[in-house]
UniProtKB/TrEMBL annotation:
Domain ABC transmembrane type-1: start-end pairs: 67-251
Record-given protein name: ABC transporter permease subunit
Membrane-protein topology: Multi-pass membrane protein
Primary location group: membrane
Keywords for the protein's UniProt record, in alphabetical order: Cell membrane, Membrane, Transmembrane, Transmembrane helix, Transport
Compartments in which it is found: Cell membrane
The species this protein was found in: Gordonia desulfuricans
Protein family: Belongs to the binding-protein-dependent transport system permease family.
Annotated TM spans: 12-32, 79-99, 111-129, 135-157, 233-254
Coiled-coil region: none
GO cellular component, one term: plasma membrane
Cited Pfam families: BPD_transp_1 (PF00528)
Length: 267
């Protein structure tokens, strides 16, 4: 099997597993409503009900337009938080790998901050940075930053020591070794961090919208529950879930293609 066919087969298997996971989510959703009939039909909505709300009901066009408009806002907020968190994680991981004293000093502080619930920090964050793009970047970045930091640090620290020795012999310093050896060898870890962080970025964006910006699907969830707009509520949940799976799939496909080009394709 050629490298191209192997890469295509890996992508197909990856997408197939995600599709099966989505089907399993729908089945669990349906079984959950059957197991707890008290939740519906007033509150609970099946996947079929959500599909009808978005595509076949008389008011489906308006519902679909409003839901997808909110989704676009949430995806924009997700991108802001994801980029902010990943860039910060890469930068801090590089510093920590090059400077062990910095890692020993600040890593415990970072983990301590991670233990504080994001919801509890929201009022302080909003007070400091205000409402809008800044609060989205901070809250989304926080959710993305910590798991990405650990994975990226592990990847950077596991660079082949032989390459470091060669670079050292030719007069290269730690930053040169980081750029020439550690970062290329850490590409799988970078993609692993990205895959873990994409769902987290959506969660961070949703929380920021819920508590900070009052826009997007996060605000829709907040407003739909007290208003008893359960069709809108369940539709928003399903759309967020589908968006998470699609974004995860995009990162996974990019990972397969890039690692294949680099000769690092995983089995």
């Amino acid at each position: 099997m050629t490298a191209g066919l192997a890469s295509m087969w890996s992508v197909a298997r990856f997408l197939g597993s995600l599709l099966m996971s989505f089907v399993l989510i729908l089945v669990i959703w349906w079984l959950f409503l059957l197991a707890f009939p008290d939740i519906g039909p007033i509150i609970g909505r099946t996947p079929g009900d959500v599909f009808a709300y978005l595509f076949t009901d008389p008011d489906a066009a308006q519902a679909r337009s409003e839901t997808f408009a909110d989704l676009w806002i949430t995806l924009t907020d997700t991108a802001i938080g994801f980029v902010t968190g990943m860039v910060a994680a890469v930068a801090v991981a590089a510093v920590f790998v090059v400077s062990r004293p910095a890692a020993q000093t600040f890593m415990p502080i970072a983990m301590l901050l991670r233990s504080v619930p994001l919801v509890a920090m929201t009022p302080l964050i909003t007070l400091v940075v205000g409402r809008g793009v800044a609060v989205v970047a901070v809250m989304g970045g926080i959710v993305v930053f910590f798991p990405a930091l650990v994975l990226i640090m592990t990847g950077l620290a596991n660079a082949p020591r032989q390459l470091d020795d060669v670079i050292s012999v030719y007069g290269g310093g730690r930053w040169t070794a980081l750029r020439r050896a550690a970062i290329p060898s850490a590409v799988p870890s970078l993609f692993g961090a990205a895959k873990v962080s994409v769902p987290g970025a959506i969660i961070g964006a949703t929380v920021a919208e819920w508590l900070g910006t009052n826009k997007g699907l996060g605000a829709t969830l907040q407003q739909a529950l007290p208003a008893a707009a359960y069709d809108q509520l369940w539709a928003s949940v399903l759309v967020i879930t589908v968006a998470s799976i699609i974004l995860y799939a995009v990162v996974g496909v990019l990972e397969t293609v890039v690692l294949a080009q680099m000769g690092m394709q995983q089995e």
